[in-house]
Structures are given as C-alpha cells and as structure tokens.
Amino acid sequence: MRKNKDTFAEPVPAHWAGKDALQSHVLNTLSLMFPDGESFFIRSVKHFADRVTDPKMQADIKAFVGQEMQHSMAHERFNKAVAENVGNMDWFMWLFTVPTFEWLEPFVRKNLGFEFLHQWALSVTAAAENMTAGFAQSLFQPGELEKIKRADVRELYAWHAAEEMEHRDLAFDVLELVGGNNYAMRMSGMAFAYGIITAYVALGTSYLVLKDKEFPWATLPQQLVDLFTKENSLGRVFFEGMVDYMRLNFHPSQQPMHPDALAYLEKMAS
Q1: Which of 47, 223, 243, 252 could form a disulfide with 22 if both were Cys (CB 3.0 to 4.6 A apart)?
Q2: Is the overall model pTM greater than 0.90, yes or no?
Q3: Angle, alpha carbons 131-81-99 (nearest 5°)
Q4: CB burial class (10 A; 0-12, 13-18, 19+) of residue 41?
Q5: 92: enclosing H helix or E strand
Q6: What's the confidence (pLDDT) of residue 107?
Q7: 172-210 confidence digits (pLDDT tens)
C-alpha cells in the first residue's frame, strides 16, 4: 500500500495553494472535511462488501478502504499543521460531523435499516467520489501542481489526487451491482452530496476569509471570477463534473486517468 508519511514538521501557511488566497481557504475547508467524509465512504461501501463475489472487485474494495484510511490520516496531520495559521475550527468540525455522522447516519442505519437507504448512502458516496476525482484530474493538468510551493503539501495532494482517480469507479460499480444505480437514486445521491458539500465549503471558507487578517480583499472579485470560470478552477471543475454525472449513460470510466497520475503512482510503487 502506498503511504504518505509527511509529518509537516513546519506549520503550513494559510495561503499555500498558488497565488489565490480564496482557493487556499476552499482547500483548507475541504481538507477539514476529508477524514470524516472518507470514513463515511468506507462505511457505505463496506456495507455491501459481503455481496461482492468477483475476486477483482473484492480486491478493489480492500484497496479502496486502505487508501481512504491513509488519506484520512494524512489530512489529519495536514490539518494540525495548518491550524496554527487558520485558527481554531472546532465549531465547524462539530457542525460538520455531529448532525450528520453522529446523529443522522446511525439513526438511519440502525433504526430504519431499509435497503434503499443503504443504497442511497452509497449513491451519495459515488457522487462525492466523482467530485473528488474531478478535482484530482484538474490537479494533474499542466502547471497546477507546481503552484503548490511547499514540497510536502504538493506530495500530499499529488498522492491523494492520483489515488482518487485510481478508485473513482468503485462506489459507482458497487451501487450498480446491488441494484441501486437507477437514475432517480443516482440523481438524489448527487443532489445531496453536491448540495451538502457546497454548503459546508461555503460556510467554512467564508469564516476563514473573514478572520484572515492578511486576506487581499482588493483582489476578491477577481478571485471569485477565477474560482468559477478559470480553466481547472475548483468551481468550474465542480459544475462540469456535476453536469457530466447527470448524463443517462454516465460511467466514471469514461474519464480516463491522467497519464501523469499513472506515472506518479508507478513512481511511488517503485
């Protein structure tokens, strides 16, 4: 299993993702959400693991679980390293984790237990995995990784992005296998995943921007435009991925893995 072992010995600056402070705060917020979000992805896939008989898919599930666990641990280390410069976000983590993963999810899984609700949770995972794989694909476009000047942070995101592309099909394929991949299920999972992630990212980013004493306010209008219109920008990739996911004949494999990401994984394995 490939592992990122960077300890981020030096505190990570709040503005680390290229020249746009706004993009850094979007990614700082997403990084806070990754550990608990990826734990949810693991639970959603593992619920159906005993129904998988194909040896390759069984191996893929095992690899998926291992990769997502490693991603969670690495981002926890990163979050601690950047916390010194972005400040305390305990309130945000409570709001993100407690109502969703400590109240709603256990209640649904233990007390309602309907098959379609477990499938719906998996459809949320499949949509979220499509979103993160889209972000990952954009990171390997020419010049994007180089914008991250800190080597340890660049390695974290390259490794995470490459593995997200590698396993982007899995949740979708498991959903298809257990019979939950009808269009209505896929769209409802997408609406929830994209909606709740957008809401939390907007909230967390707004807070970080407002408390940032070094934020370049004069450039904010242009940063907002760039975030949603510039090629490979997070907002543009987000909406393009959502539109693509809405196609009737969509499958994640229709977006081939970036060759530079393949080369990166081969390098890590060597």
Answers
A1: 223
A2: yes
A3: 50
A4: buried
A5: helix 90-97
A6: 86
A7: 999 999 988 899 999 999 999 999 999 999 999 999 999
